[in-house]
Amino acid sequence: MFKTASFYYMSGTGNSFKTAVWAGEKLKERGCKASVIPMEKAALKNTPPSADNLTGIFTPTHAFTATWPAIKFALKMPRVKKAPAVVIACRAGAYYGPLPLPGMEGTACLIIALILLLKGYDIRGFAGMDMPTNWLAVHWGMTEKHAQYFYDKTKREITAFIDTVASGRRIFKGIPSWIMGLALIQISFMYVIFARFMLAKIMFADEKCTSCGICAANCPYGAIIMKGNKSKKPYWTFKCESCERCIAYCPEKSIQAAHSYIIILCWIVFGLAGAVTSQVVLPLHMSDNYITATLFQIAYTLGFFYIGYHILFFLTRFKPFAWLFSHTTFTKIYRRYHQSDVTLRDLKDGK
Ligand SMILES: Cc1cc2nc3c(=O)[nH]c(=O)nc-3n(C[C@H](O)[C@H](O)[C@H](O)COP(=O)(O)O)c2cc1C
Predict the structure, then answer these.
(1) What is the CATH number of domain 197-332?
(2) Ligand 1 centroid vs 106 CA: distance in angstroms?
(3) Residue pLDDT tens, the chain, 351 long
């Protein structure tokens, strides 16, 4: 049995954090001291993993794989000799009418476990855990009643998982999900290298924003800056990981995803893409080279998102535009979600 446990989490809306806390509580009952630490604050060099210490990585699933901060974190972990480790990927449990359905972690556990294995860790187990779905820029948040179903289910499952590991057995869950994840690997790949940068560039604060700065102060990646002279407004940089913390915890529910803007922008970007490709790419003979052409298209699309976002940010500083964009987005009417008893302080400091 381990003497200590270090559970590192990345968590936007508290699901992965809470799952790590439940795992820690179970170990505590068995006389083991568990720390639940935010990845962005972890000082790995001070606490090198050892045989007596169970290392845990807790990450949400983004696009059927682990989040980029969790992958980067695993890559930075020190090399060890046979230190025990577990990986947990929280995924989107959702209700379809009266029916609760599981999410899909895909390659999330697999990729982190593989990195740790190559670093010398002894992987004791991994599993996907269903917690309420949290992609608030895209869909509505779950009701408390439905969320409670997933809290109870995951608390039971993580407790059983940790019990198994603590009693010296190994547990690997989710084979159908790995297979699906491997089949969808190109989506995960495109998301990690490309799409996650674009998602930040549709967020804005509407006319209800009080410039309190809570979103910027609590962004785990320092991706939000408060910009402006008279009244400062949040501006999302390319560092954003779409963890959804800002939109989930905004006290005024003022943070929105600009759906009408994104439709117009995509129409311009992808409508013009054909013309630009034939006028610019073809004359430069880029189209002969698949890699050059792809890189050009990525740079071109990101460039458009960057410029477009500056225009959106500028316009939404004026109340009529802020009102217009906020009344042509679904997030205005969507219910918001974060894990019910996780505060911003919990997420920032860990346990
Ligand atoms: C950008 C984004 C992509 C997501 N992709 C997936 C996915 O592919 N599969 C899945 O089951 N859940 C997906 N989710 C849902 C989250 O993984 C899930 O709600 C998780 O419990 C959130 O944990 P957190 O509160 O610790 O961030 C996604 C969420 C976001 C914001």
Answers:
(1) 3.30.70.20
(2) 11
(3) 789 999 999 999 999 999 999 999 999 999 999 999 999 988 766 666 788 999 999 999 999 999 999 999 999 999 998 899 999 999 999 999 899 999 999 999 999 999 999 999 999 999 999 999 999 999 999 999 999 999 999 999 999 999 999 999 999 998 899 999 999 999 999 898 888 888 889 999 999 999 999 999 999 999 999 999 888 999 999 999 999 999 999 999 999 999 999 999 888 887 776 676 666 666 655 556 777 777 877 888 888 889 999 999 999 888 889 899 999 999 999 999 999 999 999 999 999
Domain chopping of the chain, boundaries? 4-185, 197-332
| Mutation pick for ligand 1 pocket among 61, 187, 340 (CB with most ligand atoms within 8 Å) | 61
* 11 pocket-lining for ligand 1 (C-beta < 6 Å): yes
Q: Which residues contact 176 (CB under 8 A, 6 or more apart)?
A: none
Helix, strand counts (H, E) of the chain: 13, 12
How many C-beta neighbours within 10 Å does residue 194 have?
13
| Cα–Cα distance for residue pair 72/157, rounded to 1 Å | 27
Q: Does ligand 1 have an atom closer than 6 angstroms to the CB of 203?
A: no
Supply the DSSP symbol for 280. I
* 249, β-bridge pairs: none
Amino acid type, 248: A
Q: From the CB of 63, is ligand 1 less than 6 Å away?
A: yes
DSSP per-residue letters across 36-100: EEEGGG--TTTS---TTEEEEEEEEEETTEE-HHHHHHHHHSPP-SS-EEEEEEEEEEEEETTEE
- Where do we find the tokens 């959106």? 312
Query: Is the domain defined by 4-185 classed in CATH 3.40.50.360?
Result: yes
Q: What pTM value is reported for the model?
A: 0.93
